[in-house]
Design a protein that fits this description.
This protein is about 40% helix and about 15% strand. It is an alpha/beta fold. The longest helix is centred in the first third of the chain and has 21 residues, at about 50-70. The structure holds nicotinamide-adenine-dinucleotide.
């Protein structure tokens, strides 16, 4: 465990199981240095338990960095529920998951992620108050975080095309979107409205067909979407897709999308930089959802204020790109440095020297 690749001085890792409902999973709390660890719950199919653990470790570390760069008073954590092939997660299992979250006493706050919806969170909320991403009440912030995530990605792509293509217009730009789930679909909607030409892929054929009909998108095979001759590739499915095998085949000058953990390893960020592909660090560009869920949970803003906060992702990324160019440092390292600066303990005030008092 302590020598595993995903371990990064995590504060705690909880393996949970609920015999009555058959629920199994992991909650990883990476850091509570800036506040309680906030991060979604993913329900996914894993080849083995080790893969589920590694996913929780990597995702929770990403949440610490994401929350720090977004300026939120929150730490980083993440939960994974291990799904069995052919089975969905039942309301009883989500309720049991809520009891696990409750037992952590507020050190971890949950919300939805891949494979988990807002209606699932309602079941979780039956057993714990430490939950975000619940249906919106009036003008207060809240609800499904995905539209906010997609808006943040849209704003981030704007920063990227400004930095690399010297334009702020999407008109006529070709953008490839990998994954047409909650984030990918919302992103396509915005990009289409702004005049972009879309190329899409998803393992779900119905989602591709819908994108073809609604946005006039060109559908390509799942294995080809990253390698399209487009202006921007926007990964919005799962992580680890930018690696030693895929990077040499990428033709787009920009990669900017909502998926978590897009880089398989830190070296892959350097590989992209060496190939002059501008990479928008995932945890910076996809912070819109957590900005919204945080405002809901902490009651720190209205819906309008949340949209305005999400829009600031453009500015943050523009700063990251600027520093990347001026120091010839890959953007993911610029972002990591920013996160670590905020995560590292403040230097202790030096105690007054003895004997100086009158
Ligand atoms: P989702 O489950 O709604 O959608 C994921 C989509 O990806 C599905 O349509 C699925 O069929 C598709 N997919 C899976 N494997 C694929 C493959 N190999 N090729 C193409 N498509 C594939 O999930 P989501 O909420 O849209 O999240 C997408 C990504 O964004 C995830 O990495 C998630 O962690 C990240 N993210 C989401 C949010 C949010 O607010 N939902 C916030 C931050 C980050």
């Amino acid at each position: 465990m302590f020598s595993s690749s995903g371990y990064d001085a995590h504060e705690s890792v909880t393996f949970f199981s609920d015999a009555a409902s058959g629920l199994r999973g992991v909650v990883a709390i990476h850091s509570t240095r800036l506040g309680p660890a906030f991060g979604g719950c993913r329900a996914w199919f894993y080849d083995n338990d080790e893969a589920a653990l590694q996913d929780a470790l990597r995702l929770s570390r990403g949440m610490s960095y994401k929350n720090a760069v977004a300026g939120l008073p929150l730490g980083g954590g993440k939960a994974v529920i291990i799904r069995k092939p052919g089975e969905t997660v039942t309301p009883a299992q989500f309720e049991a998951f809520g009891r696990i979250v409750e037992q952590l006493g507020g050190r971890y706050i949950t919300a939805e992620d891949v494979g988990v919806s807002m209606s699932d969170m309602i079941h979780v909320a039956r057993s714990t108050a430490h939950v975000g991403g619940l249906p919106q009440a009036g003008q207060a912030a809240g609800g499904d975080p995905s539209p906010k995530t997609a808006y943040g990605v849209y704003c981030g792509i704007l920063a990227a095309i400004q930095a690399r293509l010297s334009t702020r217009s999407f008109s006529g730009l070709k953008i490839a979107v990998q994954g047409l789930g909650s984030v990918g679909r919302n992103l396509c909607e915005r990009l289409h409205a702004a005049g972009a030409e879309l190329v899409v892929a998803d393992i779900n054929a119905a989602a591709c067909e819908a994108a073809q009909q609604r946005f006039g998108a060109r559908v390509v095979p799942v294995g080809e979407i990253l390698f399209q001759a487009v202006d921007v590739v926007a990964p919005c499915a799962l992580g680890g897709i930018l690696n030693a095998q895929t990077i040499p085949r990428i033709r787009a000058p920009i990669i900017a999308g909502g998926a978590n953990n897009q880089l398989a390893t830190a070296e892959d960020g350097q590989r992209l930089h060496d190939r002059h592909v501008l990479y928008a660090p995932d945890y910076v560009i996809n912070a819109g959802g957590i900005i919204c869920a945080a405002a809901e949970y902490l009651r720190t803003g209205s819906e309008d204020q949340v949209w305005a906060r999400v829009a600031r992702i453009e500015q943050t990324l523009a700063g990251v790109f600027l520093e990347s160019v001026s120091t010839d440092t890959p953007p993911h390292l610029v972002a990591d440095a920013l996160a670590l600066q905020r995560l590292s303990p403040a230097p202790r005030a030096s105690s007054p020297a003895k004997g100086l008092a009158a």
